[in-house]
Design brief:
The chain has 116 residues and is α+β, with helices and mostly antiparallel strands. It contains two helices and five strands, in the order H-E-E-E-E-E-H. Strand 3 and strand 4 form a beta hairpin.
């Protein structure tokens, strides 16, 4: 009876760790595929970047180069390309000058005049 309980607990842990997250990911991927609109830039499962020109229930017509429109199955859309704005913080001037000095081989200390 104790072995059966351990087996049930292990199977429950596997279900929680693997099956539920995979189901959520699949659901969010399907929602992304269903939310595609005209003009969206997409990335296909094969890695092509394209712009959606026509929508269908099962297929999309996408432009992969100027004037080149192809038919693509909706399930082949891997992602909708979004521009991400990245803010870069400027480095303080003192830190930047110290790093450039080290990069040039300077330690910032005066050389010893007694050394050859």
């Amino acid at each position: 009876m104790g072995g059966f309980l351990i087996l049930v607990l292990v199977l429950g842990a596997v279900w929680l760790l693997f099956v539920i997250p995979a189901r959520r990911k699949r659901g969010s991927h399907e929602a992304m595929q269903d939310s595609i609109d005209l003009g969206d830039e997409i990335i296909t499962a094969g890695g092509l970047h394209a712009t959606v020109r026509e929508l269908g229930d099962v297929e999309l017509r996408v432009e992969i180069a100027p004037g080149v429109v192809v038919t693509l199955d909706r399930r082949a859309v891997a992602a909708v390309a979004r521009e991400i704005e990245v803010e870069v913080e400027p480095e303080p001037e003192a830190r930047a000058s110290a790093e450039t000095g080290r990069a040039a081989g300077e330690s910032g200390a005066e050389p010893d005049p007694d050394l050859p």
